[in-house]
Amino acid sequence: MTGLSAELVVDGRAPQTPVLAPSGRSICYVLAPTSRAGDHLDTELWLADVDGGGAARRVTSDIATESRPRWSTDSDTLFFLSDRAQRGTAQLYRLTLADGTVTVQTGWRAGITDHLPLADRRLLALLAEDEPTEEDERRARDRDDAIVAGEREPHARLRLLDLTTGRVSTPDVFGDRHVVEVRQRPDGGPLAVLTQASADNDYGPRTGRLHLFDQSTGTAEDLGPVAADARSLAWWPAEDGWHLGYLALTPPGLHAGTAVFDLALGSRVLRNRTAGLSMCPTELCQTDAGALVVFADGLNTALSRLGPAGLTILSRPTGRLDGLTATATGENIAALTGSRYQPANVHLGPPAGPLRKITDTRPELDGIALGLQEPLAYRAADGLALDGLLVLPVGKTASEGPFPLVTIVHGGPYDRYADRCQLSWSPSGQWLAAAGYAVFLPNPRGGQGHGHQFAARVAGRVGQEEWTDILTGIDLLIARGVADPDRLGIAGWSHGGFMSAWAVGQTNRFRAALVGAGVTDWGMLAATGENGQFEAALGGSQGWSGIGPHPHDAVSPVSFTGRIRTTVLILHGAEDPNVPLGQAVYLHRALRHFGVEHEFVIYPREGHAIRERRHQLDVLHRSRAWFDRFLRP
């Protein structure tokens, strides 16, 4: 066995967005590098025979960002997006399987954002912003480019591409609304179209509406509003006619578990088909026989079929399952899944399982020593059932403790740790286990996998019970002799970064902390973050909610920096729109004011996630060195 290096972590390649041909004979997937070396992410399209008779082969050869592969309804043609002609501007391309030729189908100057081949093989639906006008180009040349809020906002519009003539038309049916998603009825009927009033992440997801568009007549019907953050459209037939489903947040809050909503088009009756379940739906997949639903189910996954009588559990895969795709009949599926010690690969099989692995994109990890990973189940202080994971130092068992323990809190908070391989560029279980640490990966309340009520418990109360959930888990590991109480660290990214900053303001038990892209002031985040209203739901108030103190002040880490005695490493992307850099600057200045030992690192050109290879390497080396300095003297 050899040891794990930072280069092994960041230099890998991962499959993305698998798509099965409707016939079931072939599958296409995107192969993407874990890190980016230059200004653009160079991805590839790969094709494999489902019967396993032929090895996977790369079907695009240009250096470009290739994405969103989609099959024609006859399975003979593969359409995809690529920026090979102009980096950063994607166009639609067509791969003909019979002879392997690739031809460009669009030259839309604004670029194409998404596409959907239709049952009428002469037509293809496009989502694209308006092309720049002569006035737009003049303003750009003259630098007369003052941005006026609400004016000339980019909106993706539904367009139809005639493949025989190359002509792109834009149906004038949705006004100035931003089109998010399109899905055609399986029998070749109308298109379900999901729109928002704006592409802005703060406002748009709260303004969704559902429409039916008849491409033969060019007319549309408004089906009414949808719940916040709607996505993942899927049709299915029933005795009372066609049903149209989607995922969305459970009303009325903006932080709550997702649900499957079912609209019976004949009666216009809308139902929440997952109310009361202790699982959270994450994906819908349309088939001729009905919709398949992926559920986050604690540390694992449940795959179900949604029919007239309700949900039927088909299988319970271990760990996490993403990117579900199916044949037209639904007899076979493919998805991205892995194991505790193997990263996700494309797996294929019947919905009831088992699924067989058909790709091996990380062979360089074979033979690398990894830490033993164990699921945890315990009760919160108020009796709520919780779960999480423990990753032990490489080569060690729990009986050999106590070990220095680093708790890594997940982001979201509507996310979760699944029982899968914990290895990534951000501080992860296996990266720290390779250096001799035990790592606790908790799933406190507010996260995914335990139903709507579990997720909704943190709205307006971040840092309260979810913090004691985490602390209870740490105390359990200390009592079991796994964790050394004098060598505790805490880390996290995004909401996990918030929890790390919050923790060190509540207790001095931790000797070192890492705050990655973390929230430090909820009022400022509601005012400046790209998801402002959703953040206000978590923090409990906004800065304009009258004269303070405000509820969000009581759950903001900056309010407690005077108590901090723990050393803190702050890492943040300079161009983060989700949690703007000002959040990190605020914490840095507060810690400097109180004389708290800390280090503040800004990564240029980076957003909420760190993408550049050298920056990912720096995160890995710097974070481990930080904990080594204070937890392993």
Give an overview of the whole structure.
Strands 29-30-32-31-33-34-35-36 form an eight-stranded mixed sheet, sandwiched between helices. Strand 21 and strand 22 form a beta hairpin. 15% of the residues lie in helices and 35% in strands. The protein has a domain at 370-631: 3-Layer(aba) Sandwich (Rossmann fold), CATH 3.40.50. It is built from ten helices and 36 strands. With 633 residues, the protein is α+β, with helices and mostly antiparallel strands.
Which ranges are low-confidence, i.e. pLDDT below 50, for 5 or more consecutive residues?
A: none
What structural class is derived from the secondary structure elements? alpha+beta
User: Overall 3D geometry?
Assistant: globular
- CA radius of gyration: 25 Å
Tally of separate helices = 10
For this structure, what is the CATH homologous superfamily of the domain at 370-631?
A: Alpha/Beta hydrolase fold, catalytic domain
Strand content: 25-35%
Main features:
633 residues, alpha+beta, Rossmann fold, 4-stranded antiparallel sheet, 36 strands
Concise description?
Pfam families: PD40, Peptidase_S9. By secondary structure, this protein is an alpha+beta fold. 15% of the residues lie in helices and 35% in strands.
Itemize the secondary structure elements and their pairings:
Blueprint: H1 6-10, E1 13-20, E2 26-33, E3 44-49, E4 57-58, E5 66-71, E6 77-82, E7 91-96, E8 101-104, E9 112-117, E10 123-128, H2 134-142, E11 157-162, E12 168-169, E13 178-184, E14 191-196, E15 209-214, E16 219-225, E17 231-238, E18 241-249, E19 258-264, E20 269-272, E21 280-285, E22 291-297, E23 300-307, E24 310-315, E25 321-326, E26 333-337, E27 345-349, E28 356-357, E29 373-379, E30 385-391, E31 403-409, H3 429-433, E32 438-443, H4 452-456, H5 465-479, E33 483-493, H6 495-506, E34 512-516, H7 522-528, H8 532-539, E35 567-573, H9 582-593, E36 598-603, H10 613-631
Parallel strand pairs: 31-32, 31-33, 33-34, 34-35, 35-36
Antiparallel strand pairs: 1-2, 2-3, 3-4, 5-6, 6-7, 7-8, 9-10, 10-11, 11-12, 13-14, 14-15, 15-16, 17-18, 18-19, 19-20, 21-22, 22-23, 23-24, 25-26, 26-27, 27-28, 29-30, 30-32
Helix pairs in contact: 7-8
